[in-house]
Model the fold of this input.
Amino acid sequence: MSQLQAEYIKRILSARVYDVSIESRLHAAPLLSRRLSNTVLLKREDEQQVFSFKCRGAFNRIYKLLQENPVSGVVAASAGNHAQGVALAARELGIQAVIVMPQTTPGIKVEAVRAFGAEAILHGDDFDTALAHALALGEERGFPFIHPFDDPDTIAGQGTVGVELCRQHPEPMDVVFVPVGGGGLAAGISVYLKYLRPEVRIVGVEPIDAASMHDSLKADQRVVLPQVGLFADGVAVKQVGAHCFEVCRQYLDEVILVSVDEMSAAIKDIFNETRTLTEPAGALAVAGMKRYVKERKVSGQTLIAVTSGANINFDRLRHVAERVEVGESREALLAVTIPERPGSFLAFCQALGKRAITEFNYRYADSGTAHVFAGVELPGGSDERDALVQGLTDKGYPVLDMSHNDTAKLHLRHMIGGPARVPSERLYRFAFPERPGALLRFLSAMGQSWNITLFHYRNHGAAYGRVLVGMSVPEGDEAKLDEFIAKLGFTGHEETDNEAYSLFLR
Done:
C-alpha cells in the first residue's frame, strides 16, 4: 500500500458522515440485468436527504474543520448538489453558510439551498466563475472556503460510498461505474475499493462535452477545458481537482464518455427500475455502464452503477423525453422526399410497414415533391434503423437519416412548414385512440380523394393521438368533405379559421 492510499484509507474509515447521511441502498435492477445480460445493481445515492451523495463529503469536511478551528460560517461554490450538502451540514453544526451558484443552476437546487437556511448567491454562467466569486466573498467575510471536491476530507466523505459497497456486496463484483465531475466521488471510491477489493475495475463516466478527467488522464496532467456542456450541470467542471487527480491517476482504471442522448436514455432506465427521476449527472454511471457493455461485449458479470443525484427541474423532462428514444437507438428520425400527389402520403406510411410512428411533420411546398420529417420506433435498435433506411431507398425514396443530427433534433423538427399557396385549403384537428397501427388506419380511412397539404403528428405517450391535417379541397367538394369527416369515426374539429393558422401557415 502506498503512503497516499494509506492516508486516504485512514481518513475514509474515520470520516464523519452519518449525522446527515444514510447508508444508501444497493438496489437490484432486474430490467437492465435482463437487457444487458449482466447482473446490474444501483447504488442509490439519490436517496440521501439532499438527493445526492454530496452531503457526505460536505459534512465530513466542515466537521473536521470545526474540530481544528471553530468558525461562525463557511462559504462554498457549487452547481447545486454540493451547495445543498454544505447548507445542510452548516445547519446541523449551527453555523452560517454562504453559497455561490452559477446562474444556470436549476431552480429546484437553489430553492433547496435556501430551505436549509443558507444564503444563496447566483453569479456567473459556470462553476469556475462562481468559484472565483465565492473565494472573494470568503476573504471579505472571513469565512473558510469549502471546496466541492478538491479536499482530502471531502474525498474521504465520498469514499464512504465505497465502504458501504464492500459491506453490502461481499460477493464478487466486476465493474463499478462512477460519475465524474471534479473527481471527488471517483477518487474516494476508487482509492478504497482498490485497497479492499483490488480486482474490481473502477470506471469513471463523463459527458462528451465535459471530459475534464478523461482529458487530464490522457495528458497525464490536469487540463482546463475551454468550455463545458451544461446538460449535466452537476458535472460541468472545466478542471478536476488537484487532490482528486492525484488519486484517480493511480486508482481509477479508465473514463468512458457518453452523449446527451445516452444520459437521457439512462434517466429512463433508472426510472423504469426505481420510479425515481435522476438528474443527468445522476444517470451518468448507468449510461457509461450501457456503453461499456455494448463496446466490450461483456456478459455474466456483476456491474454496479452509482446513481449520484436526483435534483432535476421538472421542465427539463421535456427535453430529456425527446432525446430518450434516440439515445436507446429505438427511434429513427428520417427526412424522406415523396411525390406530391394524392395518395403518396398513404403509400409512404405503408412502405414503413407496421412500425409505430412517433412523429410526422409535413407541409406542402410545390407541385412536384414533398419532404416528410418522420420519427419511427425501432424495437430492434440501430440494426433495424439501417434496414429501414435501406428498405425505403430500395422503394425509390430519397432518405436522410437525422437520428444523430442535433440541430434537427433540437430545432428543425419544430420548424418544418410555413405559409403555402394552396387553393381552397381546409384544416382539421383529429384525435384517435393511440395504439399500434392507428396512424396508418387513420390515413387509410382518409382515402385518396383529397391531397394532403399539411400533416403534423407527435406521439406523446397519451391515450389519444392528435393530428393536424390540411387538405386541398376543390371548389364544389366542400359538402362531400363535410359528409366524409362526419362518417370518418374519429373526433374531428375544423380549424380553417384558427387565428394562428391564418398568421403562420396560410
User: Anything to note?
Assistant: Residues 152-168 form the longest helix (17 residues).
